[in-house]
Design brief:
single chain; 271 residues; alpha+beta; Fructose-1,6-Bisphosphatase, Chain A, domain 1; D-Maltodextrin-Binding Protein, domain 2; 2 domains; 7-stranded mixed β-sheet; 27% strand
Length: 271
């Protein structure tokens, strides 16, 4: 696959090669599973091995950077660059061998994503973007769709790890479903955001995502011409969980944001 994206020795090329290597670790089905804070929130020994590999290889690429991973949520405020990584987004899918799990890597500089890579090893699909250079899938430029609301598909979820927030999520979906075409629930936020960036889906909302869930998808969507935001903040932030609102067009984004803010005018959690 290298020939489809190789442009030399740019940073994105180095990250892609590292992520490809990490993807091989996901082929090993001999892993152990544990629950974290709920029976739905799983971690496997594969998550831990992929994250350890990525940390060891990514940190040397950028001087004075630090690593923020799902299995190691520690903020280092004194360093301007952070690698934000989900070693296996869609761990529940991974445990069930459903073929819908990805590795997500973003480089964030002074609060802004400058590089994002999302890799689906099951379909050998490498999504990537750099600030100001566009978004790509296996070396080919991608763009969000131009579908109007009535032809749009929305990806969403119901706040699995805290079902107390399920009702407003259901209310939002019910309202949007009246006007859009259909909805999907894939079980991995990073992959759903990548699908929005390449035009496979058109709208996205999730009540509570952590930085590793959306950081790489954020730059992919922006570089692909889409729109992404949150509640309370002007743009997504990377020090806490937040709601995420995305759409292919400005018109669809403003509509979805209005529906979301009616149900969720302020972020209803701190952690």
């Amino acid at each position: 696959m290298t020939q489809f994206y190789r442009k030399g020795i740019e940073m994105v090329d180095k990250v892609i090669d590292i992520v490809l290597e990490a993807g091989k670790l996901m082929n090993n089905r001999d892993f152990q599973v544990e629950s974290k804070d709920s029976v739905s929130n799983l971690v496997t020994t594969a998550d831990l091995s992929v994250q350890a590999f990525l940390e060891s290889r990514l940190l040397p690429l950028v001087e004075n950077s630090y690593f923020l991973g799902e299995e190691n949520f520690k903020i280092a405020k004194d360093k301007p660059c952070q690698w934000i990584v989900d070693p296996i987004d869609g761990t529940a899918n991974f445990v069930r061998d459903m073929g819908a799990s990805v590795i997500s890597v973003a480089l964030v500089k002074e609060g802004e994503p400058v590089l994002g890579v999302i890799y689906n090893p099951y379909r050998n699909e490498m999504f990537y973007a750099e600030k100001g250079k566009g978004a790509f899938l296996n070396g080919k430029p991608i763009r969000v769709s131009a579908r109007p609301l009535e032809r749009s598909v929305i990806c969403t979820a119901f706040c699995l790890y805290n079902k107390n927030f399920a009702k407003p999520c259901i209310n939002i979906l019910e309202e949007v479903y009246k006007k859009c075409d259909d909805f999907r629930r894939i079980g991995t936020a990073a992959l759903e955001l990548a699908y929005l960036a390449c035009g496979r889906v058109d709208l996205y909302f999730e009540m509570r995502l952590f930085p590793w869930d959306f950081a790489a998808g954020e730059i992919l969507i922006r570089e692909a011409g889409g729109f992404i935001g949150t509640v309370e903040y002007e743009t997504p932030v990377f020090h806490r969980p937040i709601p995420i609102i995305c759409a292919n067009t400005r018109e669809n984004y403003e509509y979805l944001r209005k529906v979301v803010e009616k149900e969720v005018p302020k972020i209803p959690y701190t952690e």
